[in-house]
Amino acid sequence: MTPERSDGERLHKVLAAAGVASRRVCEQYIVEGRVSVNGSVVTELGSRVDPAVDLVAVDGQAVQLDVSKRYVMLNKPVGVVSSMADDRGQRDLREFTAAYEERLFNVGRLDADTSGLLILTNDGDLAQVLAHPSFGVEKTYIATVQGVVYPAALKKLREGFDLEDGPIRADKARLIGEPSTDRSIVEITLHSGRNRIVRRMLDAVGHPVLDLVRRQFGPLHLGTLGSGQSRDLGKLELGQLLTLAREPHPSPSSDTLD
Prior knowledge:
single chain, 22% helix, 28% strand
């Protein structure tokens, strides 16, 4: 049991303000033992928390108590650099953040030639954790590549090989659909965030990338979000992302540009 606070705010009120449920339902969650504070289950209705300090979860899913934080999923188009200001005059992320009242910035980066899922937020702590090289969040890409990809190439991607900056392997690699005479579509999942790593891996097995899209970042999926479109994360998505960020992780050597 976490130590009882004499200060702070009532837990059920804080949960309701965070959008978890009504106050009455949040009280029920607490009594049922579904709420934890700093890793300890809390069942007392009078429990208090400090929203700025305490980590609260419901059914094992983290809850963001600070309602001033915003979390946005963007489907970044090709030709846009992952920066809020580009000194070479290229398209940057400001055209997608201008519509939001909060000052948002990107979590990690995608190179200008890669499209797909990018998180925008004003939560600096979360961004720092998820983008740090030691975090190694799982990411899934769909790559259209030159040539017919045979099982041997997929096996090599999964088993791993050496690049100029060290060994690398994919967590998963599979062919999607039937290849044509001059191109194939490969789904590849990996934890590394090293510079242009997906392109370099596929090039190393003889299949240069023609088009690359990041479809998944941790628990988040791009879904049907159109190129250049953005949307706020749902409660479940945010809970999954916050929970992931609070878990301990290994420390692979990596960069943050894919």
